[in-house]
TrEMBL record:
Source species taxonomy: Bacteria, Pseudomonadati, Pseudomonadota, Gammaproteobacteria, Enterobacterales
Organism of this sequence: Xenorhabdus thuongxuanensis
Entries under Pfam families matching the protein: Aminotran_1_2
Swiss-Prot/TrEMBL cofactor(s): pyridoxal 5'-phosphate
Protein name (record): cysteine-S-conjugate beta-lyase
Signal peptide positions (record): none
Ranges where the Aminotransferase class I/classII large domain occurs: 37-385
């Protein structure tokens, strides 16, 4: 199989791409000359093996109702065992079209309207959306900024657990937007506190496969079976292999009662039928995607190094947060002393890039922007030239 060329620029316009075609609808931006560096999907073709598997499935030509088959689950279990040294049981898996819909169902299942769900700010904006739109409250445990990256504030966490007794904590690991990978000790401390107050931890591990060479991913499931009654994990091949629009995710729920309740919810919403193409793509990705992913991770690490150095030399007011995973750059723009609206206007008018504004990640994101580094290097060069123009 030929080597992937991540430098290749592929025009994504007019493909229904949220990132490229819908800036007006999602960001209310009508400018047509902006480089989109916002949504978390990358601008690379998925592995050739995946394209070939999809192509043969399409040639078959019949797309009736389908179910996830044993081949899919076996490929997923082998992947977690190979890549993460994690032994998962077939029974623990439940499949649904996306992580966000699954999280929303779990919020409905495990909390009551008016109750709170803890998130660690800055937090992924869809977390806040599914919490508030399901009539629950966001309880923020703000992360602490430090020179080694963001840290969990356990004192504050304990205070809010004690005060609100929330049924759920929604963890993001690796963390969007900061790129932190929580280590074993950090996870353990969090689990001990949550268990003490009867709070279930849902760990969104959608970014688990995109780890930088100096980072290490630890799943909440690595901590052992004694925590199983209190944890649920969400994963997907979608972020790893760029399959987001095909819609596929796994919810790994070791506790049989929680799992049965989740499956009942899926049935109650008619969510127990699946897209056959997503299964074909994800199975091939899990079976044959290792080499491609290793190369992607190298490219993303080079992208990050390149971007950090270019920022340091051409955009000195901007500070990049130390990350261990994801392809997201969480950039501190507070040195400019601008309010977020002015910053956004300058990014549009002078830098000509569409970014995710930090304030959409809650109060902790004010003065920050999130840039997607999952793109050909040429786009990073354009982004740096744009950012360098901001203060001229
Ligand atoms: C932490 C996190 N969870 C979930 C999602 C989206 O998952 P899905 O498309 O499967 O609903 C994203 C996408 O960026 C994400 O960053």
């Amino acid at each position: 199989m030929e080597s992937p060329d991540f430098n290749q620029i592929i025009d994504r316009h007019n493909t229904g791409s949220v990132k490229w075609d819908f800036l007006d609808r999602y960001l209310h931006l009508n400018e047509t000359d902006l480089l989109p560096m916002w949504v978390s999907d990358f601008d690379f073709q998925c592995p050739k093996e995946v394209l070939q598997a999809l192509s043969s499935r399409i040639d078959h030509g019949i797309f009736g109702y389908s179910e996830r088959d044993d081949l899919y689950y076996q490929a997923a279990m082998d992947w977690f065992s190979r890549r993460h040294k994690l032994t998962l049981h077939r029974d623990w898996f439940t499949s649904i079209e996306g992580v966000i819909p699954g999280l929303a169902l779990l919020i409905q299942m495990l909390s009551k309207p008016g109750e709170g769900v803890i998130v660690q700010g800055p937090y992924y904006s869809s977390f806040a959306k599914i919490i508030t739109m399901n009539s629950r409250a966001v309880i923020e445990n703000p992360l602490l900024e430090s020179s080694e990256g963001y840290k969990i504030d356990y004192d504050h966490l304990e205070r809010i657990l004690e005060q609100h007794r929330p049924p759920l904590l929604l963890l993001c690991n690796p963390h969007n937007p900061t790129g932190r990978c929580w280590d074993r000790d950090e996870l353990l401390q969090l689990l001990i506190l949550c268990k003490r107050y009867g709070t279930t931890v849902i760990s969104d591990e959608i970014w688990a496969d995109l780890i930088l060479p100096w980072g290490k991913f630890t799943s909440i499931l690595h901590l052992g079976s004694e925590w199983h009654s209190h944890v649920i994990t969400a994963t997907s091949a979608s972020k790893t292999f760029g399959l987001a629009s095909l819609r596929i995710a796994n919810f790994i729920i070791p506790d049989p009662t929680l799992r049965q309740a989740f499956n009942d919810r899926l049935n109650a919403h008619g969510l127990d039928v699946f897209n056959s193409l997503s299964m074909t793509a994800a199975t091939a990705a899990y079976q044959y995607g290792d080499t491609w992913l290793d190369k992607l991770q190298d490219y993303l690490a080079e992208n990050r190094d390149w971007f950090e150095q270019a920022l340091a030399s051409s955009v000195p007011w901007c500070r990049m947060t130390k990350a261990e995973g994801t392809y997201l750059a969480w950039l501190d723009c507070r040195n400019l002393g601008l309010d977020d609206n002015t910053l956004q206007q300058l990014l549009i008018q002078k830098a000509k890039i569409a970014v995710s504004m930090g304030y959409s990640f809650g109060d902790r994101g004010k003065g920050f922007i999130r840039i997607n580094l999952g793109c050909p290097r040429q786009y990073l060069k354009e982004a740096i030239s744009g950012l360098a123009q901001l203060t001229t």
